Known about the structure:
This protein has about 625 residues and is mainly beta. The protein has two helices and 42 strands. It is about 5% helix and about 35% strand.
Amino acid sequence: MIKRYVCAAAVVAGLAFAANGQDWPTFGGDLAGTRYSPLKQVTPANVNGLVRAWTYHMNPAGQDGQGAPAAGGRGSARIGEASPLVVNGVMYLTSPFNRVVALEPETAKEIWAFEVKDGNPAERGLEYWAGDAQSPPTIFFGTTSGKLYALNAKTGTPEPGFGSEGVVDMKPGALKGLENSSFGLSSPPIVYKNVLITGAHVQETPSKGASGATRGWDVHTGKLLWEFHSIPEPGEPGSETWQGDDWKNRSGANVWGFFTVDAQRGIVYMPFGEPTTDYWGGDRPGANLYGTALVAADALTGKLLWYYQVVHHDTWDYDLASPPVLFDVTRNGTKIPAVAELTKTGYVFILDRVTGKPIYGAEERPVPVDDALPGDKAWPTQPFPLKPPALARNSFEAKDLATVTPELAKYCSDLWNSQPDGLHSGGPFTHYSTKPSVIFPSSIGGGNWNPISFDPRLGYLFVNTMDFGSLNVMTPGPNGTYRRAGVDGNNRFWDGENNLPCNQPPWGRLFAINVNTGDIAWQTTLGITESFPPDKQKTGRPNIGGSLATAGGLVFIGATDDSRFRAFDSKTGKELWVTKIDAGAHSAPIAFQGKDGKQYIVVTATGGGFLGDKSHADTVIAFRLP
């Protein structure tokens, strides 16, 4: 499982950086991924006074999505989930238009801009490293073309000592000779001491392709230090969950989401996705480690410490991607180091982060097997945490059809009755079938890559989920395989023209989970359906993106497809502030204190994406008190 290339001796004592409370130096705010700001200038008493401080248009060719993306790039309808960083008076940001920029954070004035010549920078952001006596402060990011860049944080120029003039080509070690395979990075790497840790963005089909392995690189030179085989090779722990050569050249099982690190213990937490292909596992019988599993490893060497598989033999595309969040749980007067992982299944698993054992218990429960596809042997049980309960719908029957308006009720009833005895559906882990099937949660969740936040004062995790179903049918492919297809042009269980789900609301929710009890402290709908009559608008909405918790007693979140940005009272869940913004903010907000002494709240709003969000802009927006 571990291939170690050189000695990964720590050359920097302690953290690679330390948050001073005023900055936002890494994606999760800190290495633990808590997304918590100790700033408290903005409070429940004054949050209604927030005003827009500035708007930055990421597209240099035009504003609000009107200009064309730079050559070779993708428009923000496909990419726009980045969270900026703020360190030492500079904001750093990846954009959908082949650029990485440094801004003055109080005004959004550009300090420097770096153009990526081949591909786009990773859509969810970048990483900052404070540097040391050997190297200056550095910005690291990956690209859709499989390159790993190191830029001087002050000048925006490539660092010549890293790789080849500031660039490492990651592809040769990942393609394994399969040159037509897809490989890149979609999320930021993370730095611990002298190690830069990267995931992988690979194909979902066919089954053979680029490796999804996690790799550690020397921050100074870009030299490969270690590789963790996410599909274990023969003789490695976990290899017994694969048969024969099924593991060989298997793609998927990749961290396309986010890492977090226990800085005190030197542990990196890796949320792995499903092995390829996504919806048919006939050529990969077994539990398929480390697919759809949370894995803890030594951050300096890549050595396996423990794993917890959330879905065995995943054929639902229930990837793990959300950043694991680290905190302490107090039970019976004892502090337990914990990690929480949000899943597409709608569950949050709270584990001991040293041992991987569920703190509130979990049990293997029987799940459907008779509806599995021909040639695919379904796993008979799946793990269910005893606490917290499911935070998203995971079953469906005809009685659950939406009746919010007569028009939606008719559409959904007609859709359901398009099959003589209704669509194939059922309880948790119902399989996609050769008969048109409604599956809850859908392949996008439940949860997704949504970063959850944690308030250490309250002991609350803030988790947003959606109640949303897939509508698909499996059709025969070559050599006895099966492929997923939509039904009458739909691959989601909704009125796609109007983005209205066919299950009864709520369609999106925000929860507070008390980590010291495992119980739900409060929950509320998240988002409105503006096309409905006023008395029916509070439905909640499908959402992709995360939250920010602050010491001021607030939770900030965009995420929804209704083009709003909101603040909730962290103790009660009461919505205190909402503002219409340029597009859906399918990103995670940050907070920092400017040189002017003001607390800023910043969110990226691009709309588009796979929610069917018809809004579109290319903006980063900052709010502050007047």
